[in-house]
């Protein structure tokens, strides 16, 4: 009997803007962020099996190969979802999971959070189970602050510590290049070095789909982590300057870095920029593509967002 297999993309996440607006008593920072996703990323493949198995492949798999498997968010997502399914009286039999790791590790573009979210989505299909949206939301948040937004996988505004999600119904798509100097930066170190944690939140957003209006708004915003990240990793500033020379609509660092991105009028412009950037730094990571648009919201995702 042939095993049943499903595949799900773990799309790269972009913080188009990230404002640090406060800090809770437990140490978690409060954020106000505009988030979208690329049309490329890691890939999670799952299939029914006689016993659980996990395989790493892809360009950046060696960076994870020596990590303790128990700390991998893919396996944590599998185990937490299985427990939730069994607790609800639904079956969650053994699975073989393959992670094709094509995105840089610890790069500020979702990474493990996107992989965990994709694992949840694909296992729900394989196991053919349904959980209440609030149960899935709580499960995702227990895996990390970025997992709920990666689970939604659509343009959105994330507030609180990342759990308060509002879909951005009018965000258009853009050509995209993500770059990374393949230098690691410490997220805790960046937050620790912040000199201000009570920055103003994001204001009014465009009501329509006009790309020019969105770009103007995005350029008026910021990533509050970028100045600190650049001081700890000067290559981030160099990378932004390189991307800026290719004629993007805007350039910014994503998350806590070291990944930076350029938005372009279309995919063709992004592909041309990727070629130029790779010729300058062939040993760095560059990937062209396109951001997703608000029209990518599916019915299940819309329901999930509505109940978070």
TrEMBL record:
Catalytic activity annotation: 4-CDP-2-C-methyl-D-erythritol + ATP = 4-CDP-2-C-methyl-D-erythritol 2-phosphate + ADP + H(+)
In terms of Gene3D superfamilies, this protein maps to: 3.30.230.10, GHMP kinase, C-terminal domain
Show where the GHMP kinase N-terminal domain sits. 72-153
Q: Which biological process terms from the Gene Ontology are attached to this UniProt entry? A: isopentenyl diphosphate biosynthetic process, methylerythritol 4-phosphate pathway; terpenoid biosynthetic process
Q: Which UniProt keywords apply?
A: ATP-binding, Isoprene biosynthesis, Kinase, Nucleotide-binding, Transferase
Reported EC number(s) for this entry are 2.7.1.148
Q: Spell out the protein name for this chain.
A: 4-diphosphocytidyl-2-C-methyl-D-erythritol kinase
């Amino acid at each position: 009997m042939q095993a049943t297999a499903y595949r799900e993309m773990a799309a790269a996440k972009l913080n188009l803007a990230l404002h640090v607006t406060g800090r809770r008593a437990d140490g978690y920072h409060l954020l106000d962020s505009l988030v979208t996703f690329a049309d490329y990323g890691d890939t999670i493949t799952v299939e029914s099996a006689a016993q659980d198995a996990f395989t790493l492949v892809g360009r950046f798999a060696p960076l994870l190969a020596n990590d303790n498997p128990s700390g991998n968010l893919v396996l944590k997502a599998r185990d937490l979802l299985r427990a939730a399914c069994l607790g609800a009286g639904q079956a969650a039999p053994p699975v073989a999971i393959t992670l094709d790791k094509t995105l840089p590790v610890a790069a500020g573009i979702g990474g493990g959070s996107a992989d965990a979210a994709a694992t949840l989505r694909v296992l729900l299909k394989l196991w053919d189970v349904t959980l209440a949206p609030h149960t899935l939301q709580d499960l995702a948040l227990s895996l990390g602050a970025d997992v709920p937004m990666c689970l939604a996988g659509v343009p959105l505004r994330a507030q609180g510590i990342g759990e308060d999600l509002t879909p951005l119904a009018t965000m258009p798509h853009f050509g995209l290049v993500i770059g990374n100097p393949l230098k690691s930066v410490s997220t805790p170190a960046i937050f620790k070095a912040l000199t201000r944690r009570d920055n103003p939140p994001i204001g009014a957003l465009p009501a329509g789909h006009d790309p020019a209006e969105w770009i103007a708004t995005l350029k008026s915003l910021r990533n509050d982590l970028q100045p600190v990240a650049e001081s700890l990793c000067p290559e981030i500033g160099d990378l932004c300057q390189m991307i800026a020379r290719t004629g993007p609509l805007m350039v910014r660092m994503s998350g806590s870095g070291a990944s930076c991105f350029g938005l372009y009028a279309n995919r063709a412009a992004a592909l041309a920029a990727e070629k130029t950037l790779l010729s300058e730094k062939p040993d760095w990571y560059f990937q062209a593509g396109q951001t997703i648009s608000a029209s990518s919201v599916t019915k299940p995702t819309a329901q999930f967002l509505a109940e978070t």
